[in-house]
Amino acid sequence: MKVLVVEDEERIASFIRKGLKEQGFTVEVCDNGDEAHTLASTSTYDALILDIMIPGRDGLSVLRSLRDAKNTVPVIMLTARSSLDERIEGLNLGADDYLTKPFYVEELVARLHAIGRRATGKKLTSRTVRDLRVDLINREVTKAGESISLTPREFSVLEYLMRSPGRVYTRTQILEHVWGYDFDPSTNLVDVHVRRLRKKIGHDADAPILETVRGVGYKIIKDE
């Protein structure tokens, strides 16, 4: 899950980034509303964590502009204040959820998963292709009922590919979603992690689950 955190307090931004990364999220951070609006308008995120009191455009202004532009990215608003009027305004503008500082990162993670499920239109808690199952809540993977131990990055790559079986994801798409924009596009990180995944989930040449599309990227084979 790729998340943009918009928070100008460095300590809080660092706390959120660290906590989410430990849970396998890909996290980008910016500290002002103008940059946040540009990033959210030009890049793809699974969710925004948007503080209200930020330099430049405030959080409510960013949210209003995104919704006016028909941008439906899920948004969790953050505020140090507990004003009912402010919460109501944010929700009326199209915020999906609200958290008042201080908060526990575990609660933020739970809320991100919840809005992610709502965004898909169903309570999706797992993804399954053939005998390979990814538990999105507990971050566990099993194949034919047997548990497979994956690193957080390996899990994120597999979860991303399994979102749309049959769809080809380019190496750049995978890199940006799992590692963010701080990595050199020419890196072989994606290929290395895919090779490790194949070893762990098994690779049947006659009936592969994870297939290489030469010159493009990778895909999970769609069930017939």
Question: In sequence order, what are the helices and strands, one letter per element?
Answer: EHEHEHEHEHEEEEHEHHEE
How large is the share of residues in beta strands? 15-25%
What can be said about the biggest beta sheet? 5 strands, parallel
Number of helices: 8
Gyration radius, to the nearest Å? 19 Å
Helix content: 40-55%
Order of strands side by side in the largest beta sheet?
2-1-3-4-5
Describe the protein:
The protein is 40% helix and 22% strand. It contains 8 helices and 12 strands. The chain has helices at residues 10-22, 33-42, 59-68, 84-93, 105-120, 152-161, 171-178, 189-201, and strands spanning 2-6, 26-30, 47-51, 75-79, 97-100, 126-129, 132-135, 140-143, 146-148, 169-170, 210-213, 217-220. The strands form 3 sheets. It has a 5-stranded parallel sheet, sandwiched between helices. Strands 6-7-8-9 form a 4-stranded antiparallel sheet, covered by helices on one side. Helix 6 (152-161) packs across helix 8 (189-201).
